[in-house]
Amino acid sequence: CGVVLIAIGIYAQVTLNKALVVTDASASSTPVAIVVVGVIIFFISFFGCCGAWKESYCMVTTFAVLLSLIFLVEVAAAIAGYVFKDEVRAGLEQGLREAVEQYAEDAELREAVDELQKEFHCCGVANYTDWATVAPFKGNDTVPRSCCRVNATNCNVHPSPATVYQEGCVQGLEAWMKRNIVVVAAVALGIAFFEVLGIVFACCLMRGIRSGYEVM
User: Is NADP among the key words of this record (predicted)?
Assistant: First the structure.
């Protein structure tokens, strides 16, 4: 389970790398947190294996307690994510809007926005008209070339749904998350099942070890 969490965290970081740069640097803390939890679970599991091998009541008890705490934290995080899902969308939209406004001022941000629009086939925050109020596109009826849906020289001039992506990047990111939420939920349930199983087995082993001590 720890290795799976590490893999999920790395996958999320790589897949949403450009989106995290565009929205907010602190947003990358979520995939990093998943990796950290995976590493912690991996080492706690190793600790539990050593306890089972040595038949150490103290080590197995510590393993069960730590795994129980991690399970409770994961449940709390899932509940918090569901409760604050609207705030997450609002933060994503605000970050994208700020990135669009600073498009001409920051080269790294400009590259990230272009990559995001190409990858998610989107343009602007809500739609392509968002660029009409942003320099250097303000007043000349143009959008970034990364918005183009057709490969033409002047595809970004006088944009229309026929030449540029009409959908905004907020919708594109939301659609990506919805497509992958089922997989994430299934993996999360699988990890939770094995964690509960580990706690139950650890408790059984604790009782067996204690019974052995009492017989001796």
Answer: no
Amino acid at site 13: Q
Burial category of 23 from C-beta neighbours within 10 Å (exposed 0-12, middle 13-18, buried 19 and up): buried
- Give the class (CATH, top level) of 84-214: mainly alpha
CA-based torsion, 154, 158, 164, 168: positive or negative: positive
**What is the greatest pairwise CA distance in the chain?**
88
pTM, full prediction: 0.62
Q: What is the pLDDT of residues 146-167, one digit of tens each?
A: 999 888 888 899 898 889 998 8
pLDDT at 23 over 60: no
